[in-house]
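Reviewers of the previous submission asked for a worked example of the structure-prediction workflow described in the proposal, so we include one complete record here. The input consisted solely of the amino acid sequence. No template or homolog information was supplied to the procedure at any stage.
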Amino acid sequence: MSGSTNKLGRENGICGRALHLDARYSSLAAPRLARFGVETSDRATTETLAMATPAEEVWALFRETDQRLRQRFEETDRKIATLSELIGRQGNRLGEFVQEMVRPTVVRLLRERGLPVHQVAPNLTAYDDNGQVIAEIDLLALNDQVAVAVECKSHLSLDDVNAHLARLATFKDCFPRYRSYQLLGAVAGMVVPDQVSRFADRKGLFVLAQSGQAIEIRNDARFQPRTW
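From that input alone, the workflow returned the following structure tokens.
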């Protein structure tokens, strides 16, 4: 009898420890499952899932969670791509706005610097023999001897300046009708950081920037433009 009693006590003790471990596990299961996107309706369901789920089902749950996460990441990537496209379009529109701001004033501003230009040609595009675009110029202010190629940006960066310098280096090859012209360069922007303005100035470019409701040339009176 005593042996049976001891055996029963041991079994009750084991069951008690097992229930304690199961309850402890179930208390940890809910937040962990929720973190992986698995929701349960109540505590009892969570405990049942935690206590009754064999290893195979746990791995199946992880695989399902992984698939859900992948789908969410893919959806996020699509949203980011769409947003980037919208931002790019908005940036292009802002660039066009800057171009329209600069266009009516660039002749006057350059004349004040001793360049007797008298017309502005917008949106020049050069194509190769295969019809591919090889060069684009936002604005070209010119007379019969001098041409100033202007690049317009909403927010002018160092990369924009370097790109325009490269564009000026190949301009006469892309637009051979201006081969005999004295070519100068200019950059314009609604926002032109000081370091970008100084860099463009050192490279021999006119710097046109918004000042209040107007456009001004930032280069000082000692500035000497570079010719190409």
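The chain has six helices and six strands. We consider this example representative of the routine output the project will generate in years two and three.
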